[in-house]
Amino acid sequence: MTSSGGPAPVLVVDIGNTLLIRDRPGAFHRAMAAVTGRGVAWEDAYDPVARAVLTGASAAEAAATIDAAVAAGACSAVEQALLEADGEASVAPGAVALLRAARAAGWRVVTATNAAAWVPPIPDEIADLVDDGISSAEVGAIKQDPQFWGHLRGRPGSDPRRMLVVGDDRNADVEVPRRAGLAALHIGPYRTIADVARLVEGVGPMPASAVGVVAGDATVWARETVVEADNLASVVVRTTRFRCSVQTAAGRAPTSVVRRKSEAPAVVIPPGFDYQGLAWVVATPDRRPTAAPSDLQAALEAEGISSVLDRMVEHERRHLISMVREAKNRPTRGERIREAVAHLWDYSRASDG
Fold it and tell me: Which of 34, 69, 136, 255 could make an S-S bridge to 81, C-beta 3.0–4.6 Å?
């Protein structure tokens, strides 16, 4: 828990080729070699082999599953490949620096890995800096499956908006976690694990009023610089724009999270703000009125839904009222009142259902 009483931020780190480098192929790749060596196409073998090896209880069980699914008669060869030694593991350059930087800044550190149930434990040099771990063998799903990340999101005491996934596999460690509502950073030629360590140091400890994190590369949308933020979708469920600030150790700037029709929500990066790939998204005091203007109040009372406005989250209520107050002419104001009434009916049905 943080000093503000909310969940601490969580750094979720891949193990293979991110924290550790092994000197020979792992169990999955050895099984794939055994299967494709019998003439099975890589694309046909990949999914069943991955699920068998990375979620199976034992090498024998995994080999039998693979034999039945894609490579009849390969059971013995696959099991033998799976039981071969995994080789020596060395700590990746920058890995210890990242974990130390995260812990120093108040992050919980959790490893997330596609790993067979029988693989050896991680070295103490890494294990001593990790608070918890989650594996495909434990969950019964591989990281390429959103179910894996749903399991992580659902752990008690966690806030998905404050989680950051880091790994080398663009699909398993970045694209799928983002679709599951988590922020993620890809480790590769253009962003090393040492670079991520510097980013974590650069944003500093989580502010008490932090809503979550924003992570990833900036793009241009509607002539604004933005960063996709699937993890912040909950703040724009019933409003199109959530007023906030972005913050690093170097400073803070006012901005907003915007809801987009056909794309993921995004954080607008203000001009001049030095965004390097990671920042806190911080709630800002909202001084807009919370009392409905008389014409909106009358429309709500006529529909019998005036109490619904009081049940809304405060920033959503302020936004709805401001949309009416800021109308520039009478026709626009009338249209916005009608939209507000329709929105509150939808809100009422959703909350009652």
Answer: 34
The long-range contacts involving 248-252, CB below 8 angstroms and separated by at least 24 positions, are: 248/202, 248/203, 248/204, 248/274, 248/275, 248/276, 248/278, 248/279, 248/280, 249/201, 249/202, 249/203, 249/204, 250/202, 250/274, 252/282
Q: Residue 342 has which token pair?
A: 């329709």
304: its two tokens: 């019998």
3-state helix, strand, coil in the chain (%, to 5): 45, 20, 35
**pTM flag (> 0.70):** yes
Residue 99 structure tokens: 């974990």
Find tokens 């596609």 and name the residue: 114
Which residues are CB-contacts of 39 (< 8 A; sequence separation ≥ 6)?
A: none
Helix axes 75-83, 27-36, angle to 10 degrees: 150
Q: Which of 187, 266, 186 is nearest to 219 (CA)?
A: 266
3-class DSSP assignment, residue 212: strand
Tell the CATH superfamily of the 1-22+90-206 domain: HAD superfamily/HAD-like (3.40.50.1000)
What does the domain layout of the chain look like in residue ranges? 1-22+90-206, 25-83, 209-285, 294-352
Rounded to 10°, the helix 330-352/294-303 angle is 40
Using the CB atoms, write b or e for 261-298: b if 16+ within 10 Å. eeebbbbbbbeebebebbbbbbbbebeeeeebeeebee
